[in-house]
Amino acid sequence: MITADSLPDDVATLKALVLAGQAAQLAAEAKARNLEAEVRARTLRIRRGPIVRRPADRQHG
User: Fold this and answer.
1) Which residue among 5, 8, 14, 20 is least crowded, i.e. fewest CB within 10 A of its CB?
2) How many CB atoms lie within 10 A of CB 27?
3) What pTM did the predictor assign?
């Protein structure tokens, strides 16, 4: 947990922490969007029904 006593006193370090936090938040949001898109794609595949696969043509022997 972050407390006032655990934060650095110099502005440069505080700025760096804020920027790092924003970068981590943006990365987490991008990951969430990608996962949501994957869920939508898989849901669509499921709604379309089962995939019918044909047996592979046997050309050996």
Assistant:
1) 5
2) 10
3) 0.64
Dig out the tokens for 58 from the structure: 């046997």
pLDDT 10s digits, 14-53: 999 999 999 999 999 999 999 999 999 999 988 888 777 7
Q: Are 31 and 22 in contact (CB under 8 A)?
A: no
In the chain the first and final C-alpha atoms are separated, in Å, by 68
Backbone angles phi and psi of 59, in degrees to 5: -110, 5
Listed by start position, the domains of the chain span: 9-47
Q: Please say whether the beta carbons of 2 and 9 come within 8 A.
A: no
Q: What is the distance between the alpha carbons of residues 50 and 38, in angstroms, rounded to a whole number?
A: 18
- Non-local CB neighbours of 7 within 8 Å, separated by 6+ positions: 14, 17
